[in-house]
Amino acid sequence: MLDYEKEADAYDATRGGEARAAAAAEAVLGLIPDGAHRLLDVACGTGIVTRRLAAARPAMRVTGADLAQGMTRMAAARLPGAVVRADSRRLPFPDRTFDAVTSVWLLHLLDDPADADRIVGECARVLRPGGVYVTTVDKAAAHDVGSDLDAVLAPRPRRPAQDEAGAVAEHAARHGLRPAGQTSFRGFGQGRSPRGTIADLRRGWFTVLPPGDPLTERFAERLAALPDQDRPRDDPCFSLRSFRKPPAG
Question: Which of 15-19, 33-37, 46-50, 238-242 has the lowest mean pLDDT?
Fold first, then answer.
């Protein structure tokens, strides 16, 4: 996994910036009822999406939480007094605190399905009855847009996707959450180019292809043979799922 303490300063610029954040926030808000009064953004990162959630719903109190100190520092600058440092597997909030909980680009980072289940369970725990949990699913699959670059990378080794939509739905059901909706949004500025992907390979972004490994270099050589080395291929389209906690009684 990437070191998000080191990634914090460059995170937004390398992940689509404000355009991607705007698309993500709009899609997330489309799955959150208008009457929600309190929202928790789990793994809020730099707060670039969290800030937009708060700005779009001034009457809704938005809290961000992230484990990486570098991320919480940047998020706190965007949302003063509304960001806490916290492990998403053990959220520091009482039961039934929030009307909505979001986790955008979190579950795909995990290696252990038990951790994914714990996180979904914690999100369910802090939800009020009738509240909604919204999360991204199938992030790695979204980056396969059917390009020549994807064809080169197709045989690479992959780790199991802990954010696979079916698995997330199973975790949600185990913690009493019911499917409530789904949508998608474009990952503006995240279309991959061959040259950029080579750089990502060599800095460890493809987590089962270590930098310097002979297999990593073989993929880099194949990517280097593609045409239009600096032309980004199509942007990915990310998926969101929402789950509702049944009303009390």
Answer: 15-19
For all residues of the chain together, what is the average pLDDT? 93
Q: Cα 44 to the chain's mean position, in Å? A: 9
Domain count, the chain: 1
**CATH number of the domain to which 55 belongs:** 3.40.50.150
In a domain, 169, yes or no: yes
What is the reported pTM?
0.92
Confidence band for 15, pLDDT divided at 50, 70 and 90: low
Let me know: does 25 contact 52? Beta carbons within 8 Å: yes
What are 190-211's pLDDT values in tens digits? Answer: 999 999 999 999 988 888 999 9
Q: Which of 162, 158, 120, 115 is nearest to 138 (CA)?
A: 162
Would you say 238 and 188 are in contact if contact means Cβ atoms under 8 Å apart? no
With 0-12 / 13-18 / 19 or more C-beta atoms within 10 angstroms meaning exposed / middle / buried, residue 94 is: exposed
